[in-house]
Design a protein that fits this description.
Blueprint: H1 2-19, H2 25-37, H3 45-51, H4 53-58, H5 62-66, H6 81-84, H7 97-104, E1 106-110, E2 117-121, H8 122-129, H9 133-144, E3 157-161, E4 164-169, H10 178-195, H11 198-214, H12 235-247, H13 264-277, H14 279-292, E5 299-304, E6 307-312, H15 314-323, H16 327-349, H17 368-379
Antiparallel strand pairs: 1-2, 1-4, 3-4, 5-6
The structure holds zinc ion.
Amino acid sequence: MKTQYYHFFYILFFSFINLSTHYDWGFYAHKQINYLATFTLPEPLFGFYKEHIHFIKNEAIAPDQRRRMLPNEDIKHYIDIDHWEKELPLDTLPKDLWEAVYKHSVWETTIQKEKVIDSFPFAQIQEIFEVDSSELSNQFRKAFYKHSDYHNFEIQDSFFLSNQKFQIIDNFSTYGIAPYNIEQSIHLLTKAFVEKDVYKIIKRSADLGHYLADIHVPLHTTSNYNGQLTNQKGIHSLWETQVPELFFENYNLFTGQASYSNDIKELVWQTVTESHQLVNKTLAAEMLTKAELKPEHIKCFEDRKNRTIWKYCDKFVEKYNSNINNAPEERLKDAIQTIGSIWLTCWVNAGQPDPKTFQKNSLENMNEIEFKKYELITTGSHSRS
Ligand SMILES: [Zn+2]
């Protein structure tokens, strides 16, 4: 009980400091979620995470920054569930990435050594080339897992079968691989705990926190991610940015303790399902709010960097939040607890190594930007970006 009060004090204290600074709020929410997830942890993990809390908080936005630089990064932040499943439950989408790509990809091959390239869906490959289906899937799986780190993962690959070269054309990942990537991130964090590598632990914890936060947002699970298919453009930032910006101060973010998960994969897919269940409500509440308000209370305009931009008016945001029963706060709280629980589970699955034995010299692997963020811990300053 004493520990809980102690954690809660930190939440109040640091929340106040951070709220007094100007932030890009999309980034702000991610940072807060990683930050607050730390306080759900039990000892001795809490002591370790607290020591590195500013890095874990500031690095929460690194995956979004990588989106501009790395070609395979973008697909890790979402999954268009409705492209694959017309309705819940999620019972036709394979939960292993190789299987999902296998099921939905097109395969190209050069026929009879002539320079004729044709492409086939999986079902036809078996028929045309009379290949055994289990041999085919084995070969595919082997080729697929040649690259075990998704951070450098090229899903396009090729392999030989009966002297025939097959090129896999990935038609799956473009619709998002968020839950599959999370599974890989979980694996990487667990490995970092086994290796007792401080740098990898804090870096991968920060990354994992970001990806888990993303799948708590309904609009990260649909092809209509910004309302562009239903004439509701702007709804993405309404949910992720404007609602938390207006209400964060009033949120009760005391989520309780992290808990060990016996089925971590199920927890991730359950989270995706819960988010996706909210997609229709997310869109319907926006339409309802529009119908309830006068046009001048829907879109408001402001000048920013020589450009006029529009945002939903505060009155609209307030009404929207009430029409959706405060769902963004609930998802945010759930994200905090899920992240804590998954960090904890990775540590337990790694054999609960004592943080006192972790290798601090691994911090030398930081790049310059990361080091600047890390340095804040020793100076006691707070980031302004
Ligand atoms: Zn993201």
